[in-house]
Amino acid sequence: MDNLFKRKCARSHICPICCIHSETVEHMLFGCEWVRPVWFGSDLNLRISVGSMDSILKWSCTMMERFQTQIEREFLFCRVVWTGWFIWKERNNFVFNQHPIEHSSTLYRAPVAREEFESVPTARTAVISCPLADNSQRINSWVPPPPGG
Q1: Spatial distance between the Cα atoms of 64 and 46, rounded to a whole number of angstroms
Q2: Phi, psi at 22, each rounded to 5°
Q3: Model confidence, pTM
Q4: Are 91 and 28 in contact (CB under 8 A)?
Q5: 58 neighbors 30 (Cβ within 8 angstroms)
């Protein structure tokens, strides 16, 4: 809302959920009162100090520096992104559909969706496991379909 307000595309910059603070990206994802239980209740168990967060980029870099291995960084990044995505969806459901905010719903849906996504074989695995047509069956250029077909 803050960015839309600055561009004169919104009537207000105030968060439509708490109706107190300016709705910046940082506020919407980490600062609004309803999202704090989501971060704390997630498997990341984050207690975020909003006053210390200048930007999501700085916060992300600081968090990534705390981990030694690429696997740990990917674990963190994946969970932050999935949780943030479901916070965004819950916020939009409230703003556009007047659906009440339920942090417990977000806490449940984010990991379920992430686990479902992670259970799907990767594109690389899918490509390797699919038999490829031999070269004699490949078409090297586009051919229009037959008339009437």
Answers
A1: 14
A2: -70, 135
A3: 0.72
A4: yes
A5: no
